[in-house]
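Incident log entry.

Two folding requests arrived from the same account within the same minute. Monitoring flagged them as a possible duplicate submission, but the sequences differ. Recording both here for audit purposes.

Request one:
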Amino acid sequence: MTTSDPVSLEPTSDEGESRLIVAECFGVEVSTFQGEGPSGGHPALFIRLSRCNLTCAKCDTKYTWDWSQFDPRKESTKRSFADLAAWAASSPVELVVITGGEPLIQQARLVPLVRRLIAAGKRIEFETNGTIAPLPELVADGVRFNVSPKLASFGVKETKSIVPAALEAFVASGRAAFKFVASTVADLDRIAELADAHRLAPVWVMPEGTTCEAITATTRVLADAVAARHWHFTTRLHVLAFADARGR
């Protein structure tokens, strides 16, 4: 797998603005909703940024980072924060989900976008892998973080995917929920270890799967054990509703 990146993350000028590297935006032209976590089922707009600092084998958005399978010139574009804010403001939907990839790689350039979205009456959820602490400017009223630390079973070394200082920063923000992908009861035991070690709360568990059948089967494996721990459980509503189609 190559990690070479012919589309630079260095700032470029667009009428004096730095631009963000974006994989896709959706929810304005065709309506959708947040498919998982605390806001599951809420109408939502999505800004999916390109690039990630992890290379998880079970990632379902490899088109944001795996250039051995995808062409970054086809899978990403550069857009100004003003353009993105105007796109979101064109919809009455309140919730804007900024996801990836790993969106906080570009967080310095996200600050003006977040400020403009909040001024337009939007509320924002970041979907992040929890390896990069948020800038203080992003820890603001109207912003929440859905932090999804990746377990070794997800196909990544935890020496890279579990960053204690970053997790502690999210805990200290008071604006984070911790959402783990799991497929076995053994995964739940590991989640409990991490939650205890880093004081992660609230904990949400999401069944692994990219098909309705897989999500249903994994839900039945995990449900009793998640309930016994008094954790939250979330499905993947977008998969159940739209068969994991891109842009939904």
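Request two (distinct sequence, not a duplicate):
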Amino acid sequence: MPKVLITCMHLQRHFDKFREEYEAAGVEAVLPPIPGQQFGAEDMERLLPGMDCVIAGDDAINRTALAQARDKGLKAVIKWGIGTDGIDKVAARDLGLPVFNTPGVFGEEVADLALSYLLLLARGLHRMDASVRAGGWLKVEGRSLSGKTAGVVGLGSIGRAIARRCAAFGLDVIGSDEQQIDAAALADASATQVSFDALLEKSDFVVIACNLTPENHHLFDERAFARMKPGSFLINVARGQLVKEAALAEALKSGHLAGAGLDVFEVEPLPADSPLREFENCVFGTHNGSNTADAVHRVNRMTTDILFDTLGLRAISGWRPNRVA
């Protein structure tokens, strides 16, 4: 009987909807309790050997884990969602292990969340809510959106969905990306592509929506924050490691930045001693951009289909799994 390790909390939470399907296919699902947000490298080195496949969350899957598991029959790594930065894809290629992900599946949901942060920061709704709950009646002088500039870093499916929403609120939208984006796609998103530095200098709201790579780790550091427009806001719905949090805390403390909306952090959950906790002009989330009932079911279905296809139990019809390694 093939065994699949499921370390994505979303599929674990809803596994009862799929349990009969797995049992009927003769697949044994292993669902270990997840500590915090994801498993670390040592955990995956312990959990992976003996598995035929894994449907992974944001776990750290290194060369050692892949090699040991491959030698004991691992056939593929299936990443729930888009970001595969936690998986050693070079090692996977060397070992002949395919790595799949599910791109383009929740761009609209993450874009909705990005706009939620933008609106909260612009109008200070989180501060007024806290005041009313405490018996107060705080009035916050907010920012009008019309005529302001939103800069979107990363113009993939998520970034363009964010751009469309910003434009609908009357913001002028500029975006940066390592690749030159097709003119038609930019027009559809109501965005203009500019350099990264130009985006920092011109934007009232900077929204991070790019992938994490070894090259852009701490893309937002002291230099980037110094180039940002005084009084601007930062919103990150991508990966926490794109932002050097110590530098962000200094930019907030100095008043150079007016606030930040962070759905992701360098270390998750956010440590109790993080200096970011000091700032009431920040709004925090729990790495939750894709977490709507519709999106979760969509990706649970896709990863299960990829699993059955990989194991040779049921071929996928109508679409092709996206292989990244």
